[in-house]
Each structure stands twice: as structure tokens, then as C-alpha cells.
Amino acid sequence: xxxxxxxxPGLVKTSQTLTLTCTVSGGSITTSGYYWSWIRQPPGKGLxxxxxxxxxxxxxxxxxxxxxxxxxxxxxxxxxxxxxxxVTPEDTAVHYCTGGPRLHQxxxxxxxxxxxxxx
Length: 119
Description:
119 residues, mainly beta, 4-stranded antiparallel β-sheet
């Protein structure tokens, strides 16, 4: 059974870079055809897809966040990492890492981690 676990700081200051790592167990992030995404949910709002890295290592980003987002991976640790630069309090959200066989099919979810951006 594939399991995902987010890790990273729960508090980030304005203008800094938010960095979160997702550790995948029970499956490989290089499994052909799979996509590993980051999704966030600001307080009182819906889910927002931020971006993804494919098993091929290709990356995909939300147009609204593309200029501030980078997703990378460490295949030796079976992890993928989100970096969001120049954060503001509007970036405060619960962040989830997900995985699935299509870019926007999220079969597997982490439990989510709260990140608060302080002003």
C-alpha cells in the first residue's frame, strides 16, 4: 500500500522560501506513468493544485504559481520536494502531497501539513 508523508517547517516568514518534502513508501516515485503532486488548501477555501513531478522527472506547475514554484525529487530516498519562494500570508495553507497514474488523478494522499506564513 502506497503511503505518503509530508514533512517541513510549520511556520515560515514572509518573503522566505517554503520547503516541504514528501516521503513515499510502499511504492516508487519512478513507477512509470505516475505523477506526484502538491496540493494546498488555504483556510476556508478549496483545494488548489500547485504542481507535479512525473516518474520521468518532467515537472508541471500551476500557471498562477509557476514563477515561484519548484518541484524536485531524490530517487535514492524516494522523496519529492516542493519549494515555494517569496511567500506571503496568503500562502498559509494545509499542504498535501499526492500520487496517481494521471496528472490530475490523486489516488494517494498524505495526511497534510499546516504551513503558516507570518507577516
